[in-house]
## 1
Amino acid sequence: MDVTKLMQSLGMVCAAMYIIKFACDSFEGASDHLGKKVYKMKPGIRGATIEAIASSLPELFTTLFLLFLYHDTDGFSAGIATCAGSAVFNAAVIPAVCIIAVTTKGVDGEVVKSVSLGQSTLLRDGFFFILAEVALIVFLGNTALAWWMGAALIGIYVVYFGVLLRGMGGGADDDDDDDEDEEDEEDTKGFVANLITFDYNNLLFGGRDFTKGSAWVVLLCSTATIGGACYFLAEAVIHSADALGVPAYFTAVILGAAATSVPDTVISYKDAMKGDYDDAVSNAVGSNIFDICVALGLPLLAYCLYNGSEIALTGGSAGSGAAVQDLRIILVGATVIILLTFLTGTRGTDDDGGGTVSVGKGRGWFLGSLYIFWTAYIVATAMELIPPFSASLLS
């Protein structure tokens, strides 16, 4: 083990997490304005579209860099690992954090015993998430990945996005005045403070209330910053794997996934503490759909078309092939368990007569324990304490 190289890699991961976190804060402010005031999206739609895409940009950029830097099987394996690890983190840890935080701290000073979610939102996002996973499973069962598979994954997201578009419009404006007050009270930091926190609204527009144009400018600047941070994150994933003597898959599934999930966690936590539970969960699940369909599909499509070749799944570093195949079983299994955890909650109805499902703190702790189990499994396979699950089935 190269300790010096490992510490340098961990430092790069921490620096990337810092940049991603603040750049996504800037992105979130602009996207929140666009979602609520410009496009007036309904709760649950905003979280699954603008917020989900915003918080999933790190996975997309990291997968692109890993694939084009590391090439072929190992690069795409690391990309799959980043997105898969992020998917498990998003689906388990983020809801767990939101549920536990809300039931512990309450919302606006009021004690909350459970979190109520729209049943139709859960079923909608759950269906497309499983559909995307099934498509990925089928594609990973081949000996090579072709450009059309990336196009098919993107196509699934296009359909999902089309379904979401039906919910655009009619969003509540109740929080508009509050949002404006928050913008007016935006801290009057100096230039250096704004620069190191990537507060592009203050840097470029003096902290004035967003307009449609200024919001899009902030989105583009934040996206470029996130992309730069993800380049260093991809390098850190590769270097830490070299330092530990393991395939890049293993460091990507823990370090890469956790780092790229920072913005998802922050955005969902903020939504939950405002009582926007549907947005909080939709952001997490919508991010997962984006990760599989676009963060994997787009790099796969681009790489195959650029190089004029397929990505073979039979080569690569020892262990990466079997580890990737593990995801064909574990990812779907984890998703089913997580969805059942929500769907088996207490049924009720909202003010509009729609079905709701309520979950309490106990289910939050259960979801958190699932991620601990997942991490322990990844570490155990990386240290060769246990064989990959798929290898056990095939032996």
## 2
Amino acid sequence: MCGILGVVSQTPANQLLYDGLQVLQHRGQDAAGIATLDGHTFHLHKDNGLVRDVFRTRNMRALLGNAGIAHVRYPTAGSSVDHNEAQPFYVNSPFGIMLGHNGNLTNAEELKKQLFVDDLRHVNTNSDSEVLLNVLAHELQARSKGPRLDVPTIFAAVSAVHRRCRGAYAVVAMIAGYGLLAFRDSHGIRPLVVGVNETALGQEYLVASESVALDTLGFKFLRDVAPGEAVFIDFAGNFHSQQCSDRPSLNPCIFEYVYLARPDSMIDGVSVYETRLYMGEYLADKLKREWDGVDIDVVIPIPDSSRPSALQLANRLNIPFREGFVKNRYIGRTFIMPGQAMRKKSVRQKLNAIGMEFKGKNVLLVDDSIVRGTTSREIVQMARDAGALKVYFASAAPPVRFPNVYGIDMPSRNELIATGRSDDEICREISADRLIYQDLDDLKAAVRKNNPEITAFDASCFDGNYITGDITPHYLNVIEALRGGGNANKLSDDDQMELDLAANATSM
């Protein structure tokens, strides 16, 4: 889950990109970067940290030009501490290309080998985004006739990228001397939208992970980039688009609606906020069916993503809704913090209970989801410490039982509290009195209420169905071992060989 932006403007792009990254900060707090293009010269600044900490006045002044791309990152592949893996990435051949990527390539190690042996290209980091950049660069070079590019050649190169790359990817790239390229994987897993702004000097275009960036920067929403589609905006402001996949299909990541996206965003024709309201309605109906006679005095959301669901649930059940936790907004999101101990420690720093809302009451806590269970367990204990008689827990999403390999940091089955446990066992693990989960069919229905044309989703973290069709137990064993979540003693010889190749890829 990263955030990407790309702009072709009539005025300097640096402030637009900075402001856009601030709006997309929720999509990644590990690193930030902006690259602008002034004529044929790229200007780049990137580093680890929040947007406000990475960029100073001197950095902004050096980002010259009316076009550029930007990125906020949290790591799902590569190292979380190496500032060299902050994006955008750059290659100087052919033409000079800057690229930012949201998602995860599931065949990155195979592509690294191809790049080194067949394409004679060197990948200098562990990031799959640099792999994707080099694949794009190679395909542009292979299809260009001489030193010049044209739009059909660019789209042909994207088609070749789709044939070679598997997984989830939404991409923005600047090609020196030509323009802004953006494209989305053939399954449409990660979101990408495009907007336009009419100015006295001419049209401006902005591509972003979420529509909220368009809203806040004054751009009019044009449309979502379709699965498999590429759009190209040249520096004269001409807009080109083409379907570059042989078999595109829309399978948006359903976890975007549950947690990742801002509530004021629209993704694939679906309001994130309205979806979360519907999630509360469906969960309330399930409570009526299965918890008849359970005495609930108050419904309390766990800030912030669950608030719409909790509010609608309370309204539908005619139970008082109260704010029981105050959030310290200067603490990062615990979901994307690396390491169990850091997440556990940050919960008490991030939330504080309002005692009067808990004391002597049976409370229903509503959260958007339960992933590792660490946060849930701490919050249940906070409610008890504040004087709650009973603490019930409701998840607006189904149990997360499977790793996500498409760009969300929940890779290890050992880390997921729902893997191998029943609902009753999970309830005991988080020390709640009762626990209820959303049904997956109801979650899908909540999204489809906004856009009935969506017939399929990437819901792999809930159902274990990996829509790219290439995820095997071998693959899961390797990524878990790479991230320290698996048991190295259980790796097969083939798994260990793949692990060794992946660990040594940058020294080949």
## 3
Amino acid sequence: MQPEESYLIQALEYAKKAEELNEVPIGAILVENNKVIAGSYNLKESSFDPTGHAECRLIHEVTKLKGNWRLSGCDLYVTLEPCLMCLAACQQARLRKVVYGAHDTKGGAISLGYKFNEDIRLNHRFEVIYFPVRECEVILSSFFKKKRESK
């Protein structure tokens, strides 16, 4: 198993925590020096917070722990492609790399063409990698299928 897959599988464990709370099952972990330093998951619905995405919550938590808003040298692994807000938070936090396991063609920043992580006009650029992990897609499609069936 490649490291990307291993880290995304760990992020899936956080996505499952979100699902248990009837939140959209998206999970994320932050890796520094090949070690997972923290993980988080969506809490947008229960917190009534539009910024309650897994990535934003994780960045907020780790910057508080480190006492520094710069997370240079850290890599984010997230089960679903980041939205514009989350990708911007990654840019602001100076992350080194973002790896995601499932595309989001309706809300993902990269899928929609907003590749500002590569924009030379900005003061920080970083790598964004799509590393497909089937379980990342399955948990989301299963969640929304159950939602539709319960209506």
## 4
Amino acid sequence: MGRVITKILPVLLALGLLAGCQQKLNYRNGQYRSAREMVRLKKEGRYAATRPTGKAKTIGKAPSGTKTKIVTKRAPRAGNATGTLASVIDAARSYQGTPYLYGGTTRLGLDCSGLLQLSFGEAGVRIPRSSNEQAVWGTPVRNTELRPGDLVFFGGSPGSRTITHVGMVTVVDDEGVDFIHASTSLGVVENSLESDYYLSRFIRAVRPQL
């Protein structure tokens, strides 16, 4: 009897693993899809290989394990802003790669609100220094109505309503919404606003009054 069970057990395990693979799900656009459906969608071009991929970065360890920060990092895409806002976005992009420095206002180091103050300043527009002051400098706008040049504000943790971070929308098109900011871990960089990491921390957006 023991020999029979020993022979059958690997078969059952293999079937179990196979069933598990068939049920593997992928999360896309707010819903879970099966692996088979993802293959079909990719063949149709709805999720092409050029779409951005997530990048995991370890930011610390908790007693229960490793804490991971997931962000979606993109190469800069052509923007669709015009006039003064196009100049502001170009100025902000010229700082890409600058390291983060709390209170920094030069190319040696920048914080998030400092990046925006410098970028608007180079376009001849004076704006407040802190992210909390910048959050009331303009007209509130829904995240479904964002345009290039809008300022987006975030909390330090999912669901927080205390503003600790700010960025500026650079691109809004069929591929999604990108914004530029001075990340504490990556420096000045453009990211997708639609990544789970940033959406979970999003608080509000304002449109500058120029």
